[in-house]
Specification:
The complex is a heterodimer of chains A (about 375) and B (about 325).
Chain A lengths: L2 H7 L14 E2 L19 H26 L13 H10 L5 E3 L5 H4 L6 H8 L25 H13 L6 E6 L6 H12 L4 E7 L2 E2 L2 E2 H4 L8 H4 L3 E6 L3 H16 L5 E6 L18 H7 L4 H11 L5 H23 L8 H4 L10 H13 L18
Helix pairs in contact in A: 2-3, 2-12, 2-13, 3-10, 5-13, 6-7
Chain B lengths: L3 E4 L1 H15 L3 E5 L15 H5 L4 E3 L4 H13 L3 E5 L10 H6 L4 H4 L9 E6 L14 H5 L5 E3 L4 H13 L4 E6 L8 E4 L11 E4 L4 E5 L3 H14 L4 E5 L2 E3 L3 H11 L2 E8 L4 H13 L8 E5 L10 H4 L3 H13 L2
Parallel strand pairs in B: 2-3, 2-4, 4-5, 5-7, 6-7, 10-11, 10-13, 13-14
Antiparallel strand pairs in B: 1-8, 6-12, 9-11
The chains are: A alpha/beta (about 375), B alpha/beta (about 325).
């Protein structure tokens, strides 16, 4: 190589071979002002009221769940405070025959899909029966290990595609989860096989104590979709109208053979990570106070009031109605005695192998001799992972 | 009309997969290179040509996905058979098996289940590159809610794989690649599974019980043959399903012989041999004339192939261990 060659390499010509853009979508801003035209569904005040009711119900349930944990009546609980619009928008956009593959802040979607508040209370109260979902045969239970459920959604979507069923798998993970390989492996397959699948990144800005800026240098998390050849967009996750609209578009596109999407929903975790966490250790109170003004429920409330579709009387009635529903669910949770101890063996296999029958018998025997011994209660102090 | 083939173990895997795909439209095969290429060991050779890309799928190179998507498919009623190309690449999926597949039925109180099979070739002795020779079956045997099955002959590969695919719960099916093509056997392709959760007694004997599985059954049978020439009668048991363990068969044999030698390729500490020995101590101590012996891989990193033969349990080591049990009594 000559000196001239070296010089010419510093003037290398490159050609742009690919170009991408990520768009941000919002319909109703935090001042309850429309920033885009209302989508068709939202022109019907009834559907906006449905969204509002679901968000209120989710929040009332959430505050009760925290109270139950604080008073020693339930285990550790992961709150969805401030993020109701994300899950409620997902739940409204999905059809009954679709499959939700959730993590642990999607109560607003689960409650619309047949999971009961009692199921959720049982789950956080340390009872597997809280995942049996009597009214929801196909949705996966909450996935606790971060992003490990994304490949499941890819498998569910593959099953739909193989059977030519017009159904969609919707997976939800957090901003932290988008740092994991499991997310990328599923995204990549969804792209290359054009699976009927929608991935929602619920970007609540915090993965326990790690802020979004320390999670990834990527300007948006939606752009991670590009690596898999998948459409990605960002949406105001506190704008339930936009959330519902983007989800409907992505789900119907997937249903009609248009392939997968990634939706990054921008929201904020108003609560601690779980009741076992104390966010004041790592997060400025001012930041949380700043976020109050973006509240998803207040925004839609104000809009409905402005447009004359809602009033204080209706609002009070709704809150009272939700409180009654929550109390009923809490009572049903309290009224559910623990499962018999040997049930820990009874769903391990379809038929318990002979090798473990003696252990099951031993457990029953122990139960008989311990009869009357006090229950340990549910004072869980575990700190789990966050997405 | 069922045909009979004279085939090797890996061919038996192929014939069983074809039969399962034919018998049940919900069975799908997926993994890296399993489709067009027919698998790096040819275990899935010709299946995609015969059953199509919808049933025999080449996935991207992503092990977590290969196991994780199988879980999602299984919850939708499919019966996926995933291949992990070598056991050395199985570790990313440990999370999927322990966190999800093994407990989906339990978590949902039976609402959702995971009737899936993960196949992986395993074990040493073929001069393979680094990471291609370990035997880490004990990792999976430690997990509640699954089965771990290891065939040791073409007949058992055929019958046990069909059983694994038909089983309503997750099965880790580990194929001893050292004996993939070691012997041929007549296999009747009649779609009949063999029972899981039972040991197979390969040889009767009255002086000592040799307990083993996978490729080591071959050294163990040869050791038993040499011992018989020396007047020692050794029973040989192929455990076949290492989780759950069929201890009654092992206990019955040890009740007759009073001696037991456990042989496995895996490292010794917390190997499946330790569980078998512990259960023998719990339930069969009084029938033992001598301490239980284990002939296993050493508690070392599996050496690369120049030293591999020094790591693998040999016929000589098995015979030495048997003689030790004979002297003790």
């Amino acid at each position: 190589m000559t000196d001239t060659d070296n010089q010419s390499s510093s003037e290398e010509n490159t050609v742009c071979v690919a170009r991408f853009e990520i768009h941000y979508r919002q319909i109703l801003d935090h001042n309850a002002v429309l920033t885009s035209a209302l989508p068709t569904f939202a022109q019907d005040a009834g559907s906006l009221i449905t969204l509002y009711r679901m968000m209120v119900k989710t929040r009332i349930f959430d505050s009760k769940a925290i109270a139950l944990q604080r008073t020693g009546k339930m285990g550790t609980y992961a709150s969805s405070l401030g993020q109701e619009a994300v899950a409620v928008g997902i739940g409204q956009a999905m059809s009954a025959e679709d499959v939700l593959v959730p993590t642990y802040r999607e109560y607003g979607a689960q409650l619309q899909r047949g999971v009961s508040m009692t199921d959720l209370l049982l789950y956080w109260g340390g009872d597997e029966r809280g995942m049996s979902y009597a009214q929801q045969p196909q949705d996966l239970p909450i996935s606790v290990p971060i992003a490990t459920h994304l490949p499941h959604a890819a498998g569910v979507a593959t099953a739909f595609k193989l059977r030519n069923e017009p159904r969609v798998a919707v997976a939800v993970l957090g901003d932290g989860g988008s740092s994991k390989g499991d997310f990328y492996e599923a995204l990549n397959l969804a792209g290359v096989w054009q699976l009927p699948m929608v991935i929602v990144i619920n970007n609540n800005q915090w993965a326990i104590s790690v802020p979004r800026k320390n999670q990834s240098l990527a300007q948006t998390l939606a752009q991670k979709a590009i690596a898999g050849g998948v459409q990605g967009e960002q949406v105001d996750g506190n704008d339930v109208i936009a959330m519902r609209h983007c989800m409907s578009e992505a789900i119907e596109r997937a249903r009609n053979g248009g392939g997968p999407s990634v939706i990054e929903a921008l929201t904020y975790r108003m609560s601690d990570h779980t009741t076992a966490d104390d966010a004041s250790r790592y997060r400025a109170t001012e930041e949380v106070q700043q976020q109050q003004k973006y509240d998803p429920i207040k925004r839609l409330h104000d809009y409905l009031m402005q447009t004359g579709n809602w009033n204080e009387k209706k609002d009070q009635a709704l809150h009272a109605e939700c409180a009654v529903d929550v109390e009923k669910a809490v009572q049903a949770y309290f009224d559910t005695p623990p499962a018999p101890p040997e049930s820990m063996f009874d769903y391990l296999y379809e038929t318990l192998p002979d090798a473990y029958q003696a252990q099951r018998a031993e457990l029953i025997q122990q139960g008989v001799s311990n009869k009357g011994a006090s229950n340990q209660g549910t004072g869980n102090k575990g700190v789990s992972n966050d997405g | 009309m069922a045909e009979e083939y004279e085939i090797t173990l890996v061919e038996a895997v192929n014939v069983a997969l074809a039969r399962a795909l034919e018998l049940d439209p919900n069975v799908v095969v997926l993994g890296e290179d399993v489709g067009f290429n027919g698998g790096v060991f040819r275990a899935t050779d010709g299946l995609q040509r015969r059953f199509g890309e919808q049933r025999v799928m080449d996935t991207p190179l992503a092990e977590t996905l290969i196991a994780g998507m199988a879980i999602g498919m299984a919850t939708q009623g499919l019966r996926p058979v995933s291949e992990i190309q070598f056991m050395g690449f199985i570790y990313p999926i440990v999370d999927q098996i322990i966190s999800h597949a093994s407990r989906m039925r339990n978590r949902t109180r039976g609402r959702l289940t995971c009737p899936l099979v993960i196949r992986a070739p395993f074990g040493g002795g073929i001069h393979a590159p680094e990471h291609h020779s370990e035997s880490t079956e004990a990792l999976f045997a430690h997990m509640p809610g699954i089965r771990v099955v290891i065939p040791s002959s073409p007949l058992r590969a055929y019958g046990l794989l069909l059983a694994a695919i038909q089983d309503p719960d997750p099965v880790i099916f580990l194929e001893p690649k050292r004996i993939y093509r070691m012997v041929k056997q007549k296999v009747l392709d009649d779609g009949q599974p063999l029972p899981l959760d039972v040991c197979y007694q390969l040889r009767d004997g009255s002086d000592v019980t040799l307990v083993t599985w996978g490729a080591m059954t071959h050294e163990t049978l040869q050791a038993a043959e040499q011992l018989s020439e020396q007047g020692i009668s050794a029973a040989v048991i192929d455990v076949a399903t290492i989780k759950p363990l069929d201890m009654p068969t092992i206990l019955d044999s040890v009740a007759k012989t009073g001696r037991c030698v456990i042989i496995h390729e895996a490292v010794r500490t917390c190997g499946v041999g330790a569980e078998i020995a512990a259960q023998l101590a719990e339930h069969g101590l009084m029938s033992l004339f001598a301490p239980i012996q284990r002939v296993t891989g050493y508690d070392t990193v599996m050496p690369m192939f120049r030293l591999e033969k020094h790591y693998m349990p040999s016929i000589a080591r098995i015979i030495t261990a048997v003689k030790k049990t004979m002297e003790a009594s």
